[in-house]
Amino acid sequence: MSAAAFETSFGQFAKLCTEDYLVRYSNKGIYNRALKDISKGVDVKYAWGETSVSCELNDGTVCTLENTLARWKCTCPSDSLCKHVLIAILFYSQQLPSTSTSSTSSSSSSAHEEGELEGSKQQIGGTEERFNWLLSAELSPLIKPFNVSIVEEVLFRLRYPEELEVAQNALLTVCLKLQGAEVSFTEEANPAKALCKIKDRSGELLKLEALLRYRALKGLDDQEALRSKVYKAAFSPDTVRECKELIHAMLRTGLARLPQSYTAQLETLAVAARSGQLPDVERGLRGIQGELELFFNRHVRFSMQVLLDRVTKLYLALELLERETLPAAKKEQLIGAFRSKYYSLPKLRLYGLGAEPWETRSGYRGITYYMYGLDDGQVYTYTDARAVYYEGNDFSFAKHYAGYSPWLASMTMRQFAGEELVFEHIKVNEERRLSSGEGASLTLVARQSINEVNKGKLASDLPALRQAGVEQPALFSDVKERLALIKLARITGNRFDKSSQSLVLEVEDEAGEQLELILPYQADWEKTVKRLEAGYGAASLEQFYAFVRMEGGQAYPISFLQNTKLISLKLDM
């Protein structure tokens, strides 16, 4: 490029250097000082080269500029964009009409230079063309500057809705309205060098999120490319093979002839799976081990269907893990994780659905709180649990239910279970579990009636519930348990089933369809069972919703909801 062509190119660049553009690259104070010095009569002399211009201010400072702010030099000691660079650009843009005229006339003698001038105008002009790199079909070069943890967190945040505003002038600015943040992209094809007032890791997250949401707005689907960057499945193939062989042996032997020593073999393989970086395989083996222990002990809670589901799901997972053609993202999902990663969400509106206490055979007790996402229609949980197998360790359901929440010191967990909440900067994992870590703020809002809530896919009627039947094992499903909100007219009766040691509540809806709700007996909620048997409290409800968990084709109630009120059955009665 000749000096005349570059002068025209720089003139086009100077026109793009609006106040907003320069302030985003520097700050408002430096911009104002540059204007003030110009108004005091500062003078700038320009020496044009083929790819840059040397700008000498009357105080002796010399700046070397190109037609981009990504590259510049100044003889002053400042490490960041200084007022001298801004003065050189602003002073030239003020003189631009006369400068452009003279430069055009001096270059018109050469046809070759005219071509260069036209090319430079096309290169600098045209906002759409300058930002075409944002919509590049190949995503990999664009996300290369960001590390895996950044990409992983942004991939998670893309699940949630965000309101975008896009403005195009000297910069392409993407405003993430729910987060109250702006990211401005320049003509340089590097999203990591985008302009954002928020710095450090939070700024990097916003830059990548703004890029990907803008691409999604323009109809590009980057999910697969992002997953290939995030998921790198690594595990022990020998452990997978050994697990398959053990399941084969179990199926050949049959349940009736299976020796009790088989549970010890499952325990050994579970330890091997943990060492082989196969957390979900370990959980599957321990699940089968638990069901077999119920079978060998002739326990009433043993279920052949549950055992078959566990064996089927684990075997299919092992079979797929051996396939080289399975994408890394799918393998990562089958492998699972030992510890869940939590990611911060800017805002989350939740509606309390109740709480349920539980105890496992492995020696853990806890309470799980269920909440409905008003914006995305998903169920979120928070679990307060403790290991009680150590001597002296105990977990009182009543004490922890009456304790105060980790987010709002004045709110008890009992209130938390039945309120409408707005979280800001709350951390959530892949299974939509809430973290009690610091940094989140919680606000209580007036709880709306359950009748007014848009319950989405969570709502179900009795015929639909029966039609769904027993849920089949799903290898790539995000949902770990099947939950439903059922609108009921009344409780018509109850009975205690001695064979299963469960209280059975007989309910019906307005159409007369009937359903049995199963409440297994345990000493901790003996009072609840007796009150429901006697017809007190929740037993007399009419026109209400039942929040239930479906297992093996049966409905297990967690809570009853009526208007703005909520009763967690095992904790509130």
UniProtKB/TrEMBL annotation:
Lineage: Bacteria, Bacillati, Bacillota, Bacilli, Bacillales
Keywords linked to the UniProt accession: Metal-binding, Zinc, Zinc-finger
Molecular function as annotated in GO: zinc ion binding
Descriptive protein name: SWIM-type domain-containing protein
Annotated ranges, domain SWIM-type: 51-93
Matches recorded under InterPro entries: Znf_SWIM (IPR007527)
Originating organism: Paenibacillus sp. BIHB 4019
Biased composition regions of type Low complexity, renumbered to the chain: 98-110
Sequence segments annotated as region (Disordered): 97-123
